[in-house]
TrEMBL record:
Transmembrane spans: 12-32, 74-96, 108-128, 211-231, 271-293
Annotated protein name in UniProt: Sugar ABC transporter permease
CDD domains named among the record's database cross-references: TM_PBP2 (cd06261)
KW Transmembrane helix (keyword) present: yes
Organism whose genome encodes this protein: Paenibacillus piri
BP GO terms, sorted: transmembrane transport
Lineage of source species: Bacteria, Bacillati, Bacillota, Bacilli, Bacillales
């Protein structure tokens, strides 16, 4: 009987072994090797030269573009995340109270989230193009401007366009998460508030929003973490994968991941330096993950 029990206990480990092996080979090992690589100078072909923390020192003291990429990424997130949170919450509230066409409204608003970044880049490139862009043609026909606006050639407007791409793509996801949270709230609470004479706006502010606080914290923190990995939208907006332009006008569209890919695979072929960028970004992401944990833990302790 004891042997049979031991044989049964070993089966879960055997079933999980393929996943664990794949994880160790394709995920854990590259992460550890990247840390090892960040301590070396290597162009991908010749011998590796150990330089210690020189790559990190050069990145933090001699590379102003790294701080420019951090500034661009932070500014894009500051523009896009609050707007996406607010609009996602409003759209979820409207969808929650719809009586007809609810599923169609959800589907239409969620479609941008599953659209490929390549398609999104082409859509916004044509929309904000100086000569043939739909937006400029509309503004000219309405006599709001005399000539087309250089949306993609000005640093600030370039960042705003990228932020708009982020909002348009993730709004449906935010709406779906908030809608799930609103659905999980017991209806007895709303019925009791209605009996007490609470209006719709008062119920939203005093009941719905406080009960959605954990969801808001989750969306804000995960959006910031995802924002630091922003790459597809700005890269595809400025000419696609075959373009030689890096970072847009005055490097206003250069994000941390774009700089990492450029230094590692395109311009310099400095694999050790690129690994240092990746691990510096990893530390930043860990920092925001700790913030997420503390916010969630504090909320749980109060409750």
């Amino acid at each position: 009987m004891q042997r049979t029990t031991q044989g049964v206990r070993i089966w879960p480990y055997l079933f999980s072994l393929p996943f664990m092996l794949a994880y160790l080979v394709f995920h854990f090992y590259p992460v550890i090797y990247s840390l090892f690589l960040s301590l070396h100078d290597w162009n991908g072909i010749g011998d590796k030269t150990f330089v210690g923390f020189q790559n990190y020192a050069d990145l933090l003291t001699k590379d102003p573009l790294f701080y420019k990429s951090l500034y661009n990424t932070a500014l894009i997130m500051l523009i896009s995340i609050p707007v996406t949170i607010l609009l996602g919450m409003i759209m979820a509230y409207v969808t929650f109270h719809l009586t007809a066409g609810k599923r169609l409204f959800q589907t239409v608003n969620f479609m941008p989230y599953i659209t490929t970044p390549v398609a999104i880049g082409f859509i916004f490139s044509y929309m904000f193009d100086w000569q043939s862009g739909i937006l400029n043609q509309l503004l000219i026909r309405l006599d709001l401007v005399n000539e087309g606006v250089y949306w993609l050639q000005e640093p600030f407007t370039a960042r705003c366009v990228i932020a708009l791409m982020f909002i348009w793509r993730h709004l449906g996801y935010f709406m779906a998460i908030y809608l799930a949270g609103m659905t999980a709230i017991p209806q007895d609470i709303y019925e009791a508030a209605k009996v007490d004479g609470s209006s719709g706006a008062h119920t939203l502010v005093t009941i719905t929003l406080p009960l959605l606080k954990n969801i808001s914290v989750f969306l804000i923190v995960t959006s910031v973490i995802g924002g630091f990995q922003l790459f597809d939208e700005p890269k595809l907006l400025y000419g696609g994968w075959s373009a030689n332009s890096i970072g847009g006008p005055d490097n206003a569209a250069l994000t941390v991941i774009w700089k990492f890919i450029d230094n590692t695979f395109i311009s310099d072929n400095r694999f050790g330096y690129g690994a240092a960028i990746a691990y510096t970004l990893f530390v930043i992401i860990i920092f925001f993950s700790m913030i997420s944990y503390r916010l969630s833990a504090g909320k749980g302790e109060k409750e």
